[in-house]
Each structure stands twice: as C-alpha cells, then as structure tokens.
C-alpha cells in the first residue's frame, strides 16, 4: 500500500501549497492541504502519503483542513508530517495514529562557546567518548535506573523532577516546549509492561533515526535571531533526537488495542483502521490523553538525561565544567504529540486538539507560549536533516498561526524505505563515505548506518526553503554535522 504511487488530485493553491479537494472521496469533511514546492510534490506522488492526508479528513470534528508538511512520507494511519486539529465541541476525536508510536519524539539543541578549531584535534576522542558513554541501540538500557514510584514522578513532573538530582537546571526547563511537562498526565493508567520498559531506558538514545550529533554553525541567515540564541558561524553545538523509547511505544500499542471497536461504538466511519480514535470527551479518549501526556513527559526527561551525559563527556574531554564551556540548551521541541491549544478558526477563537505527527510547533514572536528569552524572535524550531548534509535552526512565524495551527516541518523526510536504503548500501562503507565528507560516524551496526545514509532522505534544504517561503517559519542558521553517534 505505502509503495503504490498516488494518482489523486493535487490542485495548486500557491507555489508552496496544494489541495486535495474534499470532493475527492465521499466522507471527507474538509480539504487536504499539502505544503511543498514542485520538486518535493513530485516525490510525494511516489507513495500513498497524500492518500493518508485525504483519509485524515474523515475524522469527526476536524477543523479547516487535513494538513501536511513538505517532509511528509507514509506512516501508520496518519502520514508522518501530518497535522490535524479537532474541536471537542464538534465531536472532535483523539487518535493515537496522529501522535505515533514514539510519543514526543523530538529534538533539542545545545550550544557551546567552543569553535570548530577548538575541537578538531580532539574529534576522534570526543565522538568515541560520546559513543561509549551515551547509551544507544535497540532496547539498550542506561546508567539511570528508576523504580516505579520514581518513574511516575518523572511522568507527572517532567525534567523539573531532575533538578534536585543535579541533572537539570532552571534554564533547561525554561527552554523546553511546554516547560517539559503536560498537565493531566496519568502514569497510573500505564500498563505494567510500559512501566517495566521505562525503568532503565530514560537517558538512552535508542535506534532507527535517533542520533546525537556534534554540529558546527555553517551559515547564519538571521543575525538578530542567531544572536538572541547565542549562535554564530563556526560555533560547536550538540543536537539530540530521541523520544519516549519502549515506554512510549507500549503506551501507543496498548491504546490501539484498547480502541478496537471504539469508533464503531460511537458511529465513526473510518477509511483506514489505523486511524482508530475516540471522541475526546469519552472515557476511552480521556484515558489515552492521560497516558499520552505521561509518555510525553517521560520523553522530555529522556532528552534531558541524554544532554546531561553529553555535558559530562565534554567536561571530561576538554577538562572544564559544562557551564564554563557555555553548554546551554537553546531549545527542545516535540514533533510527535497532541496538545490542547487555542487557535483562531475563521473569526472564532477555539480550543482544539492539535495532532502533530512528524511536525513541529512554530509559534511566532510574542505568542504567550513562546519562551521569554525568545519573545522578540519567535519560538526556535529545530529541523534535523541527514548525517551527511545539514540540519537547520528556524523560528516560528505568524503565518503558521494563520495557515497550519502554529506548525511547520520536522525534518528532511524519508525518500527510501529502510529496506531500500540497506539494499542501496550493499558493498559500501557508509562510515568511510561520511568521513570523506568530514563526518565521524559511529553506530552499533553497519545496518544502522545503512538505513540512515544521506541518500535515504530528501534534501532538507528544499524542505526548509519551502516552509520559509510559505511563511510558516524563518531560516536562522544552517548546521553541518561533524560527528554522529547512532544505535
């Protein structure tokens, strides 16, 4: 299904937006809108992601349109790169497929006062120590162990609970989306299996597309925003991409099983069983929301602990405290989450559930939820690309509030399946190819690097240019990788 090309309609709205009219399929409640330039649009026709955009338009209570970002590709139920807002006052639903299995997968970026020339002589040792000390790999546990009671505290409080352990500071919390904690978390509703999977995985990277990268600011596009974030050309940063690990996966898996038959119970017709959902105001919907919030708070703790371990490694390699190295968190964004937010729909302000699956919040300057330090420039947006080319730092723009419920893209987006990427890598040494590009890469397996090789992804520069030109978010700085560790 995913590999079949899409032959349905894509009507031009603008140079960067294309419509699937609701007349395409009986049952669509709103249009589908896909943000892309022409080059990316042609890539999107290669799989069924646009069909999934149309399917999401069936969901009860959906507002304005079923939206998709320029990095979309096929996913479970919802496309990855999809956005959907539902209004509980109109029977709106919550759908685990609109959040994904890796609840609150996200990205954080930490700056330093080191320049590339400072670290170049020690790059081999630095990447080696990061690989040795930051746990990564399938099912890999870490140095932090939490009993069930401690784990529930993390899921209720988020990374603020780590301050008293000396593993977080107030500034880290201020620079985390939602201050790292969604109210209303219900860790008491998680299964024993979910709790068990989370006991030793908080502070571990995982596998797949998750990574920790040492990056260098390659080019600055917005001097004011870059200065506000403390970024300048040549500066060394650390980007971390991970989520809620086995705990979050189990929460999603449990929820999907619990929702079997629930759409039929409430008279909801779905074109795809993977869009399983429940009305927000139903026992089933409220249960998933409480569980999802708990897993989201766990994920923020996970990235906080990963950053703490990276700080430790830099301290050891460079012989100075992380504070002296200026290793401050710039920001942490979620890109697999559903949140209850206020947005203007037509002439009315509504409180809606915004599902962002492979999509990033991008609030503009002076939005109430934009951190105080960034009020004048907008919320930082972090867009990882691939380990051979680039990643980006952007800021949210007013256009996101007017077009996409305060949302922009989340990455480059895959253009090859993992199977196809491995097949294309046969006989090659991806680590040696990356080294020729100036990137030291370490992974648990050849397959891990092969699956995530640069050719597996679209060109992130094209994706970023699209959201920049569409007014969803604005370019601040381009980052190039120099060291990467993966599971």
From TrEMBL:
Positions with a binding annotation for Mn(2+) 2: 241, 335
Task: Tell me one GO molecular function of this protein.
Answer: metal ion binding
Name the reaction it catalyses: a 3'-end 2',3'-cyclophospho-ribonucleotide-RNA + a 5'-end dephospho-ribonucleoside-RNA + GTP + H2O = a ribonucleotidyl-ribonucleotide-RNA + GMP + diphosphate + H(+); a 3'-end 3'-phospho-ribonucleotide-RNA + a 5'-end dephospho-ribonucleoside-RNA + GTP = a ribonucleotidyl-ribonucleotide-RNA + GMP + diphosphate
Q: Which PROSITE patterns match?
A: UPF0027
Which top-level enzyme class is recorded in the Swiss-Prot or TrEMBL entry?
ligase
Give the record's cofactor note, including how many are bound. Binds 2 manganese ions per subunit.
Please give the superkingdom of this protein's source: Bacteria
Q: Where Mn(2+) 1 is bound, by residue?
A: 102, 210
Question: Which GO terms of type biological process are on file?
Answer: RNA processing; RNA repair
Read off the Gene3D superfamilies from this record.
Answer: tRNA-splicing ligase RtcB (3.90.1860.10)
- What are the EC numbers? 6.5.1.-
Task: Could you list this entry's UniProt keywords, alphabetically sorted.
Answer: GTP-binding, Ligase, Manganese, Metal-binding, Nucleotide-binding, RNA repair
Q: Which cofactor does it need?
A: Mn(2+)
Q: Which InterPro entries is this protein grouped with?
A: RtcB, RtcB-like_sf
Family per UniProt?
A: Belongs to the RtcB family.
Describe, as the record does, how this protein assembles with itself and its partners.
Monomer.
Q: What name has this protein been given in UniProt?
A: tRNA-splicing ligase RtcB
Query: Gene encoding this chain?
Result: rtcB
């Amino acid at each position: 299904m995913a590999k079949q090309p899409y032959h349905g309609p894509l009507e031009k709205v603008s140079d960067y937006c294309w419509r699937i009219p609701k007349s395409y399929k009986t049952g669509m409640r709103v249009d589908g809108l896909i943000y892309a330039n022409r080059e990316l649009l042609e890539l999107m026709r290669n799989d069924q992601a646009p069909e999934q955009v149309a399917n999401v338009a069936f969901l009860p209570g959906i507002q304005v349109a079923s939206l998709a970002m320029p990095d979309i590709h096929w996913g479970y139920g919802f496309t990855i790169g999809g956005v959907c807002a539902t209004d509980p006052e109109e029977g709106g639903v919550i759908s685990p497929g609109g959040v994904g299995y890796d609840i609150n997968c996200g990205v954080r970026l930490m700056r330093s006062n080191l320049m590339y020339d400072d670290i170049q002589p020690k790059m081999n040792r630095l990447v080696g120590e990061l690989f040795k000390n930051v746990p990564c790999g399938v099912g890999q546990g870490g140095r932090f162990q939490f009993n069930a009671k401690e784990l529930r505290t993390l899921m209720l409080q988020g990374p603020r609970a780590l301050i008293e352990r000396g593993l977080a500071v107030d500034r880290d919390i201020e620079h985390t989306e939602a201050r790292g904690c969604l109210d209303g978390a219900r860790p008491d509703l998680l299964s024993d299996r979910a709790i068990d999977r989370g006991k030793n995985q908080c502070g571990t990277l995982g596998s797949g597309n998750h990574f920790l990268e040492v990056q260098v600011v390659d080019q600055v596009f917005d001097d004011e925003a870059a200065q506000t974030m403390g970024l300048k050309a040549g500066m060394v940063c650390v980007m971390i991409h991970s989520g809620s690990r086995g705990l979050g996966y189990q929460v999603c898996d449990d929820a999907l099983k619990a929702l079997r038959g629930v759409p039929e119970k409430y008279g909801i017709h779905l074109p795809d069983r993977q869009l399983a959902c429940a009305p927000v105001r139903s026992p089933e919907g409220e249960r998933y929301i409480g569980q999802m919030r708990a897993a989201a708070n766990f994920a923020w703790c996970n990235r906080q602990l990963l950053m703490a371990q990276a700080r430790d490694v830099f301290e050891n390699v460079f012989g100075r405290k992380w504070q002296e190295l200026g290793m401050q968190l710039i920001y942490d964004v979620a890109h697999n989450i559903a949140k209850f937010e206020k947005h203007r729909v037509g002439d009315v302000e509504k409180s809606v559930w915004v599902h962002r699956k492979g999509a990033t919040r991008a609030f503009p300057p002076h939005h109430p939820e934009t951190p105080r330090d960034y009020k004048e420039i907008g919320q930082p947006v972090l867009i990882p690309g691939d380990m051979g080319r680039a990643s980006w730092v952007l800021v949210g723009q007013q256009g996101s509030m007017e077009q996409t419920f305060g949302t922009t893209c989340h990455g480059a987006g895959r253009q090859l399946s993992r199977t196809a990427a491995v097949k294309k890598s046969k006989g090659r040494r991806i680590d040696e190819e990356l080294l020729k590009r100036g990137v030291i890469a370490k992974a648990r397996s050849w397959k891990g690097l092969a699956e995530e090789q640069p050719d597996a992804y679209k060109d992130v520069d094209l994706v970023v240019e699209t959201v920049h030109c569409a007014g969803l978010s604005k370019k601040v700085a381009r980052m190039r990788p120099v060291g990467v560790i993966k599971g």
